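Before a colleague's protein record goes any further, I have to sign it off. Alongside the sequence sits a line of tokens, each denoting a local backbone shape. I want your independent view on whether this chain really folds as the tokens say. Where you disagree with what is written, explain briefly why. This is what I was given:
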Amino acid sequence: MTRSLWIWLGALPIFACASFAQNADQGKPAPGNPAGSPADTREAAPGVPALGQANVADRAFIRAAMLGGRAEVQFGKLAETKASSEAVKNFGRRMAHDHGAANDRLFSLAGRLTVALPPDQLGPEHKILWSRLDAEDGAKFDKDYIDAQIGDHQKTAQLFEYEIGSGQDAQLKAFASDQLPVIFEHLRMARVLSDALAIQMMAAASPLQK
């Protein structure tokens, strides 16, 4: 995820509290969701967004999740071709498949909610990572790819948890709830691989192996 998106997401609870206090002071109904809703959101009742309306959290989630999902597919395919470990190749293949399917579902939800998707396949930070990984090979590539996967899936889990707690659209929240266990499973797999790669590197560097 891009740094700017994460900073914005971190500021959403502060915005929500300020919005709630302002509405209470003015004697108006509080927003239908703690994360607030865009000014042009259709309402079923004062302060209650109509069904199928995406609030601030929904819109931020869709854009960040799609950008991250696209990156997972691209890096997964790169690992399939460049990894020296068969286990890392298989992990990359799994990432490309699982995140590709999730991206298709998210794309459909974004269209229903008329939320514009980011035009780029990779965000700035992932472009830097791509350049570095594309220049590596062997055990170095395997380790750096898996290390990056651990960090990315930790961030992704936080993003999906935020949508589950603060989103407005029921179908989008259901998508996040369905995908969160998959994300945690990916994170577990990456951590197991990281440990295995570390052991292999230590064994290769041991004097007993020379």
About this structure: Residues 1-9, 11-35 have pLDDT under 50 and may be disordered.
